[in-house]
Structures are given as C-alpha cells and as structure tokens.
C-alpha cells in the first residue's frame, strides 16, 4: 500500500475482512509513517474524524471506538477477579489498556511489555488524548522486550495477565503454544485471570479455531468467551478469559465494584453491560463446552 499515492489521488483505504468483503475508509491525512525493526507503523486520519493506528497495514486502534475494545479487554476480567492489584500487559504499546487498568483503585503495579519501542514513542506523541500520560505514571513500569524473554526472567506473580498483542490468524499464531501458556500460568496468582484478545469471532467453528480453544483448555480449568462488536473492526471481536478457580460474582457485587473500585464511570461498561457480555449467544457458549 502506497499511502503517499493514496493521499495524492484522494483514495480510500480498504481492509480485507473476508473473501469478497472489504472495509473502506477515506483518508484525509497521513500523520505519521515509520518503519521499525519489527513492522511498518502508520497513523492516519479518516474523513469521519477518527485517528487510526496501522501496523503492517492492519488496523490496530481507532480513536472513535477504541474505548469499546479496551474497556472490554480490561474491565471484564478485572471485575470478574474483583480485587486486582498486580497486572501484566503484553503488548499494548498504544497505552490504552494501561489507561483503563489505572482507573482501578485496587491496582498497585502494572508491568507493560512491548517489543517495539517505536510503537510506544509514536503513540506517546500522536495519541496523547488516548494514553493520557500512562507512560509516565508511577504505577506503570515499561519494559521494551519480547514477552517470551520477559516470561523466562520473571518470578513475580500477577493477578491479571492481559494479552494485547497484534492479532494473528489462529492457524498462524506462533506465540501462543503450550509452553507459552504454562509460563503464563506459572506467574499467575492462584485466583488470577488471563485475558486474550483473540481476533475476529468465527461465526462457524473450524478446525483451526477449535484446535486453538483445545490448546487453551489443556492448560486452564475454565475458559470464558465474550465477543464484543467494535465498529472499526466491522465485526465481533473475541476476548477469552482463562482461569483455574471458579469465578462467581453476584449482580449486587458487580454494582459495588463499578461504584467503588473504579475511579470514574466508564463509557461502554457498567454492571448491566458486564452481565450482558458474559451471557453471550448460544453458539458462543457451545465453544466453551
């Protein structure tokens, strides 16, 4: 994709969703473009006013609706845990996941591990309204590293592990394997939760997706899928919670958590939305069996 040619000729950006299916937006500004050791980084502005981050030509974040994605990624597992204090964020170089985690009064320490310093620097400058100073917050420790190296070196325990790395197809994900999951499990507290962003939800089961779920089930006792509609992704985005202890939370408990443990009202989630997301459609429930 030649962004400079697109801008000169008033082109639209098209992202393939499936065979015969495209998602299109008109570009009005190229805000930033660079090539790091790991990927191409582009920050664009669309005609609809949304500022967007593309990594290797894949949409990662849109300012218009990123709150839907990040509130779902962070607050659903946090509320389910009820009292998270220590958090590991894998990826999340745009800072938005850390922003949401910092809203929790219980959170004492966040470790953010991002392999690409250029992503952090680009987003720190161009998405200040989104990351809101998290990179300079005393509760956040930034480590520029491969998460696999981080897992080798660390013996600390976390209440929550957030997997917010760039999405890959289930049949092309070379990071999530049994060894990786075992290492994640080893640094989780007994009542800990790991939450994965898992890409677009397949409406029909397929071998790759089922094998992926079976892999997760082989290392964790409980698995909870919850899809959320994110407009910029033009589909249901799938999140998966993994844990080893039964999690039961009453509606009254969730009300108390949203009122007393989160420092401000959220834009997307409250106690009603939380329960609605977890009581998902039948075909998604079937994946959990």
From TrEMBL:
Superkingdom of origin: Bacteria
GO biological-process terms attached to the record: spermidine biosynthetic process
Keyword Transcription (UniProt): no
Keywords attached to this entry: Polyamine biosynthesis, Spermidine biosynthesis, Transferase
Gene3D superfamilies: Spermidine synthase, tetramerisation domain, Vaccinia Virus protein VP39
Family annotation (InterPro entries): PABS (IPR030374), SAM-dependent_MTases_sf (IPR029063), Spermi_synthase (IPR001045), Spermidine_synt_N_sf (IPR037163)
Pathway the protein contributes to: Amine and polyamine biosynthesis; spermidine biosynthesis; spermidine from putrescine: step 1/1
Catalytic activity: S-adenosyl 3-(methylsulfanyl)propylamine + putrescine = S-methyl-5'-thioadenosine + spermidine + H(+)
Binding of spermidine, residues: 70, 94
Record: residues binding S-methyl-5'-thioadenosine: 39, 114, 146-147
EC numbers: 2.5.1.16
Domain PABS, chain residue ranges per copy: 10-244
Any GO molecular function: thermospermine synthase activity
Active site: 164 (proton acceptor)
Similarity remark: Belongs to the spermidine/spermine synthase family.
Protein's job: Catalyzes the irreversible transfer of a propylamine group from the amino donor S-adenosylmethioninamine (decarboxy-AdoMet) to putrescine (1,4-diaminobutane) to yield spermidine.
Assembly and binders: Homodimer or homotetramer.
Name of the molecule in the record: Polyamine aminopropyltransferase
Lineage: Bacteria, Pseudomonadati, Bdellovibrionota, Oligoflexia, Silvanigrellales
């Amino acid at each position: 994709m030649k962004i400079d040619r697109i801008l000169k000729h008033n082109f639209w950006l098209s992202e393939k969703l499936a065979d015969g299916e495209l998602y299109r937006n008109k570009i009005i500004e190229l805000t930033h473009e660079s090539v790091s050791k790991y990927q191409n980084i582009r920050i664009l502005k669309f005609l609809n006013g949304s500022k967007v981050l593309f990594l290797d030509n894949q949409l990662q974040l849109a300012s218009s609706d990123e709150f839907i994605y990040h509130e779902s990624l962070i607050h659903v597992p946090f509320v389910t845990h009820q009292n998270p204090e220590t958090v590991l964020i894998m990826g999340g170089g745009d800072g938005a996941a850390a922003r949401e985690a910092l809203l929790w009064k219980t959170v004492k320490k966040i470790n953010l591990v991002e392999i690409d310093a250029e992503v952090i620097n680009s987003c720190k400058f161009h998405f200040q309204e989104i990351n809101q100073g998290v990179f300079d917050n005393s509760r956040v420790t930034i480590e520029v590293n491969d998460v696999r190296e981080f897992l080798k070196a660390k013996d600390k325990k976390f209440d929550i592990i957030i997997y917010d790395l760039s999405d890959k197809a289930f049949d092309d994900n070379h990071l999530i394997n049994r060894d990786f999951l075992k290492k994640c499990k080893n640094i989780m507290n007994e009542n800990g939760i790991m939450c994965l962003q898992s890409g677009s939800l397949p409406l029909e089961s397929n071998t790759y997706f089922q094998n992926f779920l079976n892999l997760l089930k082989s290392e964790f006792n409980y698995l909870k899928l919850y899809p959320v509609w994110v407009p910029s992704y033009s589909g249901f985005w799938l999140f998966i919670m993994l844990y080893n202890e039964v999690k039961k939370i009453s509606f009254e408990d969730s009300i108390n958590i949203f009122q007393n443990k989160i420092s401000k009202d959220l834009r997307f989630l409250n106690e009603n939305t939380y329960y609605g997301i977890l009581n998902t459609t039948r075909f998604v429930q079937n994946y959990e069996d």
